[in-house]
Amino acid sequence: MGKVMLEVNNLKTKYVTRFHEDVYAVDGVSLKIEEGKSLGVAGESGCGKSTLALSLMGYYFAPLHYISGDIIVDGRKISGMKPDDVRKNILGNEIAYIPQAAMNALNPTQKIIRFVEDVIHAHDPKMPRKDIYDLAKERFQILGLPEEVLQKHAVELSGGMKQRTVIAISTILSPKVLIADEPSSALDVTSQKMVIKMMRDLMEKGFIKSMIFITHELPLLYNVTDDIMVMYAGQIVEKGTAKEMVFDPLHPYSKGLMGSIIVPEEGVREQKLTAIPGTPPNLKHPPEGCRFADRCPYAQPTCRGMKPEVIELPNGREYRCLMSERKVREVYANA
């Protein structure tokens, strides 16, 4: 077992609406990532993926609030730290975060090198501009970005180039954990391929120690990450290796996700596409029992009244369901 870069134990966070209603978007999430490993997080919109990304950084501001649980980065507990301490000592060099549509956040009137300077000066105010430029030039070139990008404005770059530039800037301090939320969405196929290659290069060259890659596309994760966990209604419903999750999903929601997406891999592409009926539940008032019961084609009456516990299998795989592994496989075989 390698060195653990990120460990999360029973993390709970919530949104407080303007009507003072609590929305538990992350409800008891636990995960662990070792050095050199990548973890994918999948699920449809509204399942809590982006909120989980925000919550993992330990930096909270209204309307998102920390409730309980531990976040440990390379042996250092950051949950419960003061926001200023997290911003100065954790963000950027311990954990880096790339939000959705991050490329649209670049100030069009500012050169790219100024963004790099802002990131580095937030942690080392005395570092000379020449040293920052030399560091940025070297890093950009290693990651396949030409030096002239540093002297350009964001409006002069294509969408794919902007996204790769944002990733390079976000990881300039070589963080131990990179959290990327839909980093390849809204890009054409060629640009997506280049972004994914860049993420792999960051891992292989040691610029980041571990990575969390969030997307609604399970098959994409198969080609990018070592392990995948599926999120539904604020909870993790299944975790396993990328191969297990794509070719042998156990939880009915994971199976539904795979059945609703075109997958080019042999053995899956021949299967007929099916849709998951309904929508995720309202997390202001989550269901009493299984949160997927109302949409599950295999649900029994007990599923609506009994909360499913996480079932841990001998090979380290986990899923949240009232059915045993044997029962799950019997049901799927007869479906």
TrEMBL record:
Location of the ABC transporter domain: 11-258
Any one Gene Ontology molecular-function term assigned to this protein's record: ATP hydrolysis activity
Record carries keyword Magnesium: no
Transmembrane intervals: none
UniProt key word Ribosomal protein: no
EC annotation from Swiss-Prot or TrEMBL: 3.6.3.-
InterPro entries assigned to the protein according to its UniProt record, in alphabetical order: AAA+_ATPase, ABC_transporter-like_ATP-bd, Oligopep_ABC_C, P-loop_NTPase
Protein name according to UniProt: ABC transporter ATP-binding protein
Organism whose genome encodes this protein: Fusicatenibacter saccharivorans
Gene: gsiA_11
